[in-house]
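Ticket #4471: structure export looks truncated?
Reporter: QA, pipeline team
Priority: medium

Steps to reproduce: submit the single chain below to the structure queue and open the exported record.
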Amino acid sequence: MELRVLKYYLTVAREENITKAAQVLHVTQPTLSRQIMQLEKELGVKLFTRSNHKIVLTDDGMLLKQRADEIVTLAEKTRRGFSRAEGGLTGEITIGSGELYSFDCLAEILEAFKSANPLIRYDIYSGNADQIKDRIESGLIDLGLLLEPVDMGKYEFARIPGQETWGVLVRRDSELAAQTEICADVLMGLPLLVPKRAIVQNELSNWVGVSFEHLNIVATYNLINNVAAMVQKNMGIALCLKRCNLFKDLRFIPLKPELSARSVLVWKKNNMFSPATSALLDFAKKYSSGIAGDTI
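Actual output as written to the record:
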């Protein structure tokens, strides 16, 4: 299976039309059709069906699209990781992060590192912890910023200074908006939008003191942006992190008693990194220690 053919296939899947894909790739339509047919023969599956001048991916086609995208992305990442330039480190470092307040600290670290290494590029991937860990495992992400608790069996890590604070996101015209803290009994019976991850739900359930089955949950979410719109439309209040206080007409209120967590920068154990990523890790550990010790 050639990388070039996988790129052809991804273009066909994106354009949903062989002729258009051929034009984008600057190859003839018969050539492209032949390459796709050979790919189907190699894999022993049918990748798409035709419908009204449009191709529709089969289930096998959708699976190959996902895998091909990962393979091509990893190949490009590998190529950039070996790039060299006179006068300093170069290449690309891929970092995954959720919507965390501690990303401000990571951004500070990256800015300080960039001053000494201006040729390095960064690819920032936003997602939840499960998505980030999956991409670390597959080699698509070098480093991930995750919220504790995290199973550290597969990772090495460095703690990021500061902490994340849990609270609720409410409309500014809500009766709750006047409060400075939110207790668990206030949430009982109210329509709630809560994080989808089981490990986070367990933490919040322990804080509330009852199982999630007894709460009025109207929606679950991975990332807060779209859910904030649901809060604005008065569908409920969102249990979320303090980072989520940047939305217009919404107010963040911390929980009482306080529920907080730390963030960690993680990377795969025994992993071989590019010189650029290794240098950033060394820098981040020292810089974070300096922040924590108030020496920077």
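Status: closed, not a bug. The export was complete when the record was re-opened. Leaving a note from the reviewer for reference: Residues 164-260 form a domain with the D-Maltodextrin-Binding Protein; domain 2 fold (CATH 3.40.190.10).
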